[in-house]
Amino acid sequence: MKRLVCVLFLICCAAAPANAFWVWTPESGKWVNPKYSVKETPQQQLEFGLECAKAEDYAKAIQEMEKLIKYYPKAREAADARFYIGEFQEKTGELGKAFKSYQDVIKKYPFSDRAPEIVKRQYEIGTKALDNKAKREKEGLLNKIGASKVDAVEVFETVIKNQPYGEYAAPSQYKIGLFLKEEGLLQEARDAFEKTVNDYPMSEWAKAARYQIALADSERSAAAGYDQKITESAIEEFKGLIEEYPDAELSQDAKKHIQTLRDKEAENSFIIAEFYEKQKKYDSAKIYYSAIIENYKNTVWAQKALEKLQRLEVQK
């Protein structure tokens, strides 16, 4: 019987895959499988994982760091291991996974001294998601970069949550607005920019956000039909920027936008005047044509309105 058991054992060993072999370790007095073995100390395990990464075997490096976390969950090195997992995932382009791995350090090791570096890296991941348009595949508010999905809004919101008044909070809030604007969500983008101004009024990003608010209103006015309120709001925003930053380059851009918006206002008034004229409501038409001449002297519509008004006076 013993001979039969030994034979069966040898057959099983021979049939097992090469990576499933077991070896005897005199130090522990046990049979171990090297694939699942862990170093005697967490520091040794950490160093071994870093050696794998140095050889650019990131899959193996991640595996070794995961073993450290599993077998030494309360060790100081466990927090470092989670951090390095995120770093290795970032190096292989798995930005979504890297973002979550970094966040795991914040959640499970809130007193880790790596928090500032983690927030910086998360911010950079969000920026890549925002800037990498060529590789982006839109899926709602999701970006696909490499093999992982990155929700840029979620990343930036997490950065703000992790350090509400840290170095990357204001630019994160601003870039949420940029992302929403790119998606065509102009009202939501405007709200995000306004939050930048309100929450970080002394930041350099507040000025840029105010400019973006005006641009968002300008774009919204293009689809607003005859509703002049959005156009007026955009003009007021641009005027405010000119008053506060008269010498800034953006003030010159603001002046150009104001002229464009005033042209649009004049055009809308001209369309309304023509509508009344076609309806033979000549008195109402004259009121609008006269208002264009008076209020929009520096537009092409002022001359057109004058010509229209002169014709109506002749008809009268």
Uncertain runs: 4-20, 137-148
- Mass-distribution shape: rod-shaped
CATH homologous superfamily annotation of one domain: Tetratricopeptide repeat domain
Question: What proportion of the residues is helical, as a percent range?
Answer: over 70%
| Largest sheet properties | 2 strands, antiparallel
- Strand percentage, roughly? under 5%
Order of helices and strands: HEEHHHHHEEHHHHHHHH
The CATH architecture classification of one domain is Alpha Horseshoe
Overall radius of gyration:
33 Å
Q: If you average the pLDDT, what whole number results?
A: 80
Structural class: mainly alpha
Strand order of the largest sheet: 1-2
CATH class assignment of one domain: Mainly Alpha
| Separation of the first and last Cα atoms | 124 Å
Count every beta strand, where a strand is a DSSP E run of 2 or more residues.
4
CATH topology group of one domain: Serine Threonine Protein Phosphatase 5, Tetratricopeptide repeat
- The tally of helices reads 14
Task: Report what the structure shows.
The protein is 70% helix and 4% strand. The protein is mostly helical and 316 residues long. The protein is built from 14 helices and 4 strands. The longest helix is centred in the C-terminal third of the chain and has 30 residues, at 249-278. Among the domains are: 34-92; 113-217, Tetratricopeptide repeat domain (Serine Threonine Protein Phosphatase 5, Tetratricopeptide repeat); 266-316, no CATH class. The N and C termini lie far apart (124 Å). Mean pLDDT is 80; it is low at 4-20 and 137-148. The protein is rod-shaped, with a radius of gyration of 33 Å. A two-stranded antiparallel ribbon has the order 1-2. Strands 3-4 form a two-stranded antiparallel sheet.
